[in-house]
Design brief:
The complex is a heterodimer.
Chain A lengths: L6 H27 L7 H28 L2 E2 L3 E2 L9 H4 L11 H23 L5 H23 L4 H5 L7 H19 L12 H19 L8 H29 L4 H15 L8 H26 L7 H19 L18 H31 L6 H6 L1 H6 L8
Helix pairs in contact in A: 1-2, 1-4, 1-8, 2-4, 2-5, 4-5, 4-7, 5-7, 5-13, 7-12, 7-13, 8-9, 8-10, 9-10, 9-11, 10-11, 10-12, 11-12, 12-13
Chain B lengths: L1 E7 L4 H10 L6 E7 L6 E5 L2 E5 L2 E10 L4 H12 L7 E7 L17
Antiparallel strand pairs in B: 1-5, 1-6, 2-5, 3-4
Classes of the chains: A mainly alpha, B alpha+beta.
Chain lengths: 410, 112
């Protein structure tokens, strides 16, 4: 039976695409923007916005093909339609989601690519040259994101091995989290590395937009207006909620008072962790996943980071990286064909081998992302230079890099 | 002529302003400042790390007055800004050499 376009699926996927766009612009932007010093707010917001633009352009020139087109040796896709030539004109349906147009699948996937790169910015804020970031985005997108996304989602070798990543635990969170770590080691510790958010209100708005948009991210990854989408939406929300509650509990136990930033961070940890599992697990699993992940991330951020001493300014590794790892492993444990008949399931479904595949993916993707990101960073550092002059860092990036001020209050 | 610089709790500004108005002292300049005396600071906590913040928000009120009115003004401020707890603030009085009213160019005590 030939696939035909479903207007219900297409409508939902159009909305999901828009939801995920909202997550980057301005979700992540605002979330990060509230956490840094007021003199750097515009630069911080800018990093997310400019990332979205660069990825948007490159994706439709060659990016979509490199990830999703005909597989070459399990490593990368062939660039069969540069500049997306003919695809829109043909009205072809997607081979990955046969009830929606190929163009729609492509633009939906573009939003994932964009947010993955934008997430990394949170680690290097307040001290990275804008020109260095402009060079970083296309290089990382092409050399790190595209191969990894192809391996996991585009029919590449990890996909062929049976790895499960519903909406991006490996492709988005692990890859960006580990990349953040590599960049942080290169760009160095800020002169003022204290976390004193200048406007937590922005972070609240950012988190709200992220949570809202995440329904597009996870439920949209069901690729249709289906039961699976509903299931994904519910477990996503459950994990977020448990994540928030767990972090609030950790705050109370460790520092005496529940904090709003803690609540927001916990929700995001919950959301990020459920991402690879959203279409494979049930509510009970989601409760556990959200709770456990938030606690681990809490300690990664409050104890591990100060212990090792790296300046991952906004905890991209501590929250996204860690969540990517935990969530990907959780899939190996909690995935069940009762939720998604297309899979064999994980440990609880009597298929412990899945956990092994997940672990392999984490190790390989983690190493790949770290090493290649580090190399990219080194090349940029040797040519353009990664870090701003000390004087600019102290005075603030908005005035020095952009000749703008975030708060001209008169 | 004297300059009276007073640092008070921000929530006391309305009371002090009202009371000064009642004794005929209308002119003033008000600034929001941060500072400390012997009042201990507060602790803020972000992602599990505590930060001591010991410069607390205060309000600084500056008044220039004729020497004979200073005592009345000081008494009014003290009575209305006082809570009895550490952190009530201070008043500093210093001499003023000259006062000029910009609108008319008047000088001296009449320009206050």
């Amino acid at each position: 039976m030939d696939p035909i376009l479903s207007s219900g699926d297409t409508a939902w996927m159009l909305i999901s695409t828009a939801l995920v766009i909202l997550m980057t612009i301005p979700g992540v932007a605002l979330f990060y923007g509230g956490l840094i010093r007021r003199e750097n707010v515009l630069n911080t917001l800018f990093l997310s916005f400019i990332t979205f633009s660069i990825v948007s352009v490159l994706w439709f020139i060659y990016g979509y093909d490199m990830v999703f087109s005909t597989d070459i040796w399990g490593v990368i896709g062939a660039i069969s339609n540069p500049f997306f030539n003919g695809v829109l004109e043909s009205g072809a349906l997607s081979s990955y989601a046969p009830t929606i147009p190929q163009g729609l699948y492509a633009v939906f996937q573009m939003t994932f690519a964009a947010i993955t790169v934008a997430l990394i910015s949170g680690a290097v804020v307040e001290r990275m040259k804008f020109s260095a970031w402009l060079a970083f985005v296309p290089l990382w997108l092409t050399l790190v994101y595209m191969p990894i996304a192809h391996w996991v989602w585009g029919g590449g070798w990890l996909f062929q091995m049976g790895v499960l990543d519903f909406a991006g635990g490996i492709v988005v969170h692990l890859s960006s989290g580990v990349a953040a770590l590599a960049m942080v080691l290169l760009v160095g510790i800020r002169k003022n590395a204290k976390l004193l958010p200048h406007h937590l209100g922005y972070s609240v708005i950012g988190t709200g937009l992220l949570w809202f948009g995440w329904f597009g991210f996870n439920a949209g990854s069901a690729l249709g207006a289906s039961n699976l989408a509903v299931s994904a939406m519910i477990v996503t929300n459950t994990s977020a909620a448990m994540g928030m509650l767990a972090w609030v509990l950790m705050d109370k136990i460790n520092t005496g008072k529940p904090t709003l930033l803690g609540a927001l961070s916990g929700a995001i940890a919950g959301l990020a962790t459920i991402t690879p599992a959203a279409g494979y697990v049930n509510v009970t699993s989601a409760l556990i996943i959200g709770f456990v992940s938030s606690i681990i991330c809490y300690y990664a951020v409050s104890h591990l980071k100060p212990l090792i001493g790296y300046d991952d300014a906004l905890d991209v590794f501590g929250i996204h990286g860690m969540s990517g790892i935990i969530g990907t492993l959780a899939v190996g444990i909690f995935a069940t064909p009762l939720i998604n008949s297309a899979i064999k399931g994980g440990v609880i479904a009597g298929n412990p081998a899945q956990l092994g595949i997940q672990l392999l993916a984490i190790v390989v993707v983690g190493l790949y992302s770290f090493i290649v990101t580090y190399l990219i960073g080194m090349v940029i550092d040797r040519t353009i230079g990664l870090r701003v002059e000390e004087e600019h860092e102290v005075q603030g990036l908005d005035i020095n890099l952009h000749e703008e001020s975030g708060y001209r209050l008169s | 002529m004297k300059k009276i610089v007073t640092i008070i709790r921000p929530d006391k500004l309305e009371d002090v302003k009202q009371a000064l108005e009642e004794i005929g002292c209308l002119g003033m300049t008000v600034k929001e400042v941060k500072g400390r005396g012997i009042q201990l600071g507060i602790t803020e906590s972000y992602r599990g790390t505590d930060y001591k913040v010991d410069l607390l928000p205060k309000t600084q009120v500056e008044i220039v007055a004729k020497t004979e009115e200073v005592e009345k003004i000081v008494d009014t401020i003290v009575k209305n800004a006082q809570t009895g707890c550490i952190g009530d603030g201070k008043i500093f009085i210093s001499p003023v050499e000259e006062v000029v009213r910009i609108r008319t160019g008047e000088r001296g005590e009449d320009a206050i």
